[in-house]
Amino acid sequence: MRAKVFFITLAVDDLERSVAFYRDGLGWQTDGIVGREFHDEITGADGTIAFFALDGGLMLGLYERDNLAKDASLPRGPASSTEFSLGIPAESQADVDKLLAEVKAAGGTLTAPAHMRPFGVYSGYFADPDGHLWEVAWDCNR
Predict the structure, then answer these.
(1) Closest to 134 in 3D by CA, of 115, 106, 108
(2) Where does 35-120 show beta strands of DSSP type E?
(3) pLDDT digits (tens, 9 = 90+) for 35-77
(4) CB neighbours of 13 closer than 8 A, spacing ≥ 6?
(5) 43, 62, 124, 137: most buried by Cβ count inside 10 Å?
(6) Domains along the sequence of the chain with CATH
């Protein structure tokens, strides 16, 4: 299997709210919510989803929590923000602070203040409206 990821899908409770956070709050590019006309007769999942084009060809999908569970043929589990985090690179310490301020202004929740980690990375964490954990980081060793 190739070690390559081309999309990441986050389960969300309110698709409209989450699209507004990433599009309007963070300024990420999207065609908005698409796929409303699709319905999977086997799993029962609707195709309603939003995709954001990220740098390097990576796509971020936002999919309603119930539909993601149905699509994967799994029972819906409890939401947890501590299972993984996604990283956003910054160009400097000041850039980390600036990006976290933008997130806060957009309605994100700052969960850990930015500071220099013992391994030489300056970073801070935020959660999106659904509790997904993101780390904004600058590696001063690079």
Answers:
(1) 108
(2) 49-53, 59-64, 85-89, 109-116
(3) 999 999 999 999 999 999 999 999 999 999 999 999 988 898 8
(4) 64, 65, 79, 130
(5) 62
(6) 7-71 (3.10.180.10), 85-139 (3.10.180.10)
